[in-house]
Write a structure and sequence with these properties.
Blueprint (H helix, E strand, L loop, with lengths): L1 H25 L2 H8 L2 H13 L4 E9 L2 E4 L5 E6 L6 E2 L4 E5 L2 H38 L2 H6 L4 H41 L1 E3 L4 E6 L6 E2 L6 E5 L3 E8 L11 E5 L6 E9 L9 E8 L12 E6 L15
Antiparallel strand pairs: 1-10, 1-14, 2-9, 3-5, 3-8, 4-7, 5-6, 7-9, 10-13, 11-12, 11-14, 12-13
């Protein structure tokens, strides 16, 4: 009897357990989903929470206040580069020099040709003066009244005067051409020393001394030393949260410091490929050397102040 009783109890336990399992399996899964909330509702709640925050975070990059590729205005061989990468230079400081010997020879030839042209101009002036004197003598009233000079000679004198005036004009034009050529070569000699257009830091060097430089080949890259700016991208749906002049906080990495600034300007158009709008922020103070140009940062923009409706003015 005890063994039979134990067997009955075991069968009853298995039966009850199976019934509970079947009942749990037949329950509607939506009941559990309702209690925990659907993923879409969680995403909407997170989005509402972000929209009601105190600011918006965007990804940005540090850029210099100004940048330029230093290229020579004329072709020539680089004789020297006066600065190294990373050097701080003042405005007007010499950066590189081109070879001058060919230009000096060309200048000497041009100056000699200018002297020849001026000599030809003087000869033309003398010839014109003689032709005018002859024409004036032939046109004297006494000689005209006496008809002492044949008409053919008077006409020839007038023709010679006109020819002398034309030769003088040609000589003067030749002088002007040679003067312009001399000035052009002198300017090329002056341009052979390339100077810094503004105060900045030498960021890169593309050519070495001895290389052939030309206006199409940059030699150095200069970054402005008047501070850095931050350029960041704004999704088009978040544009209403950023306005010109809004304060920003720029975080330099996870453990870096925080810089402050203001939104300087916002692009008026949306990039068709990324659906982003580019904005530029100006920092309140120049960062230290630990913040190089090109550094990726996080930009937090405070929302614009809410406008309050103005009620009617009270009259006394």
């Amino acid at each position: 009897m005890p063994r039979a009783l134990l067997a009955c109890i075991s069968l009853l336990t298995l039966f009850l357990g199976g019934a509970l399992a079947v009942r749990f399996a037949m329950n509607d899964p939506a009941d559990t989903a309702v209690s925990r909330g659907s993923p879409s509702e969680e995403g909407q709640a997170a989005s509402r929470g972000a929209q009601t925050g105190t600011g918006a975070d965007f990804l940005g990059v540090v850029i210099p206040s100004a940048s330029v590729d230093i290229v020579p205005k004329t072709e020539g061989r680089l004789t020297s580069i006066e600065v190294e990468v990373g050097a701080h230079v003042k405005e007007g400081a010499p950066l590189l020099r081109l070879e001058l010997q060919p230009l000096r020879k060309e200048l000497a030839i041009a100056q000699a040709m200018l002297q020849t042209a001026r000599a030809q101009e003087q000869l033309a002036q003398v010839a014109l003066s003689e032709a005018r004197d002859r024409t004036q003598r032939y046109a004297h009233p006494k000689l005209v009244s006496l008809q002492a000079v044949p008409e053919e000679e008077i006409a020839a004198a007038g023709f010679q005067e006109k020819s002398a005036a034309a030769r003088l004009s040609a000589a003067q034009a030749q002088v002007q051409e040679q003067v312009a050529r001399v000035e052009q070569i002198q300017q090329r000699i002056e341009d052979s020393v390339i100077k810094a257009p503004f105060e900045g830091v030498v960021a890169d060097r593309y050519l070495d001394p001895g290389a052939q430089a030309s206006p199409s080949r940059p030699v150095l890259r200069l970054l402005g030393a008047q501070g850095l700016r931050v350029r960041f991208a704004i999704p088009e749906e978040a544009l209403h949260r950023v306005s010109s002049g809004a304060p920003v906080q720029v975080r330099l990495g996870r453990e870096g410091g925080v810089l402050t600034g203001q939104v300087e300007n916002i692009s008026p158009e949306v990039d068709a490929a990324s659906r982003m709008i580019i904005a530029l922020a100006r920092l309140d103070r120049p960062p230290g050397p630990e913040v190089p140009a090109g550094m990726v940062v996080r930009v937090r923009v405070d929302p614009p102040p809410e406008r309050t409706a103005l009620g009617p003015e009270e009259t006394p």
